[in-house]
């Protein structure tokens, strides 16, 4: 039963996206990185607690839970750490 998409879901629960790169992992209590814009994000508010910034887009609503796991494909030969100069909010 879990493999059959139900009405209105279009197979959402079985879809997988690969190679999402984690750019920043942090906490809003850290003074090094200001992640919240003045007044918070539109339709969301202020980010409180832990957060992850991913490169690219994530489908779904802005409050949808995202499940991350370790990679299942081979690691590329060399992955450089991203050089983040600033975060524009």
TrEMBL record:
InterPro entries: L3_arc_euk, Ribosomal_uL3, Transl_B-barrel_sf
Annotated GO biological process: translation
UniProt keyword annotations, A-Z: Ribonucleoprotein, Ribosomal protein
Pfam families xref list: Ribosomal_L3
Annotated signal sequence range: none
Gene Ontology molecular-function annotations: RNA binding; structural constituent of ribosome
Any one of the GO CC terms: cytosolic large ribosomal subunit
Family: Belongs to the universal ribosomal protein uL3 family.
Annotated protein name in UniProt: 50S ribosomal protein L3
Organism: Marine Group I thaumarchaeote SCGC RSA3
